Amino acid sequence: MAETRHVIIVGSGPAGYTAAIYLSRAGLKPLVIAGALTPGGQLINTSEVENFPGFPDGILGPDLMENMQRQAERFGAEIVFDDVIDVALDGTEKVVRVSGGDEFRARALIVATGASYRHLDVPGEEEYGGRGVSYCATCDGFFFRNKPIVVVGGGDSAFEEAHFLSRFGSSVTLVHRRSEFRASKIMVDRAIENPKIDMVLDSVVESVNGNENGTGVESVTVRNVKTNECTTLPANGVFVAVGHIPQTGFLGGQLRVDERGYILTDGASTRTSVQGVFAAGDCADPVYMQAISAAGMGCRAALDVQSYLEDAPLGQ
């Protein structure tokens, strides 16, 4: 039978690595199952990060995550680069199985698997990712100062991004596939009152178009769903705000989640519906979804785990 560890962390973004740093320094030698293909979470695909405290000149997303990994390993965290395919959470020992065939056991488990951005899946979106196409206004809005911006979506998050981006862009055009919005009335009213924001309704983005040398975005092609007429909108920045997908499917319904799949926690803590299981980062946070808030939640999860282990003697 596999060795029973103190704690396993599933996920390797800011939440997972921060939890690992704290738990390692507490002498608990956490095992981090970081993922096989994209360890480090969404920041691996982010170029310049300018809003993470401590880096006045900014830092590349992959470099930030590598630093966090090295810091966790320095204090004794063990990193496994594999994907979790199955968990068993009903016993006092939590069982985690990975695609490589290994099985790991621990008294406590932190789920920090994050959430992935929903994509439009149109030509040019992937090609110009990080070169005009973005999924985070607070991360990248500054780079499009005095340039035309398009925001795709119709919910509160899309309107929040449009308002934020109107501080930077020469114009902001919000493209939505329906004539009515999922966003709250107050958010819609604010957008209507904002002279920098225009709306293109009953329309979908058909393609993201780059400049001649392929180094950046120049426009988007949109199609009216009622008339099928296509038009071209100028855009140097395209912000996709059509939602996120929490990476919680592997849990098999063993934890309480909301209607969108985000893990529910107990008040301000990181405790989940199963004793000994904790959640941190974007998989449990549909509101803020920032690297710094995920890191803070990872810290809270580590402290919650320490408290739990102190109150639950070995073998219970």
Automatic annotation (TrEMBL):
Coiled coil: none annotated. Its cofactor is FAD. GO terms for biological process: removal of superoxide radicals. Pfam families: Pyr_redox_2. Keywords: Disulfide bond, FAD, Flavoprotein, NADP, Oxidoreductase, Redox-active center. It catalyses: [thioredoxin]-dithiol + NADP(+) = [thioredoxin]-disulfide + NADPH + H(+). It is an enzyme of class 1 (oxidoreductase). GO terms for cellular component: cytoplasm. The keyword Hydrolase does not apply. InterPro entries: FAD/NAD-bd_sf, FAD/NAD-binding_dom, Ferredoxin-NADP_redctase_2, Pyr_nucl-diS_OxRdtase_2_AS, Thioredox_Rdtase. Gene3D superfamilies: FAD/NAD(P)-binding domain. Binds 1 FAD per subunit. Belongs to the class-II pyridine nucleotide-disulfide oxidoreductase family. Homodimer. This is Thioredoxin reductase. It comes from Bifidobacterium gallicum DSM 20093 = LMG 11596.
